[in-house]
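Protein record
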Amino acid sequence: MFVSHITSIPGVRLEGTGIVNAMKQSLIGPAQGWDGWSMRLFTLAEGGQTPRHSHPWPHINYIVGGQGTLFLGGQEQPVQTGSIAYIPGGEEHQFRNISGQDFAFICIVPAEADK
């Protein structure tokens, strides 16, 4: 069993090519008893973005705050609080913050993808 609060989980500022103003919090995964899966929270500050990239694993996303865009399937689509997305493995994708407030989303992936 695991119970915590988002304010108790440290964030890691992400750096690398194509990453701007991005932070990741690893919320639940194998260390908390959820074998095989990881749930992370990404927060993109104003002007923030993830790199446009692809990888072999799928992931599930739920937008928990703000507004942004999701590049997926060759096009950019608006997303906002309450939006959901399934991104198949191998599909090029990118999240971008298009608002003046934080844009935050949950991302669930196979545990080996959360490194």
DSSP finds no helices and nine strands in the chain. The two ends are 23 Å apart (CA to CA).
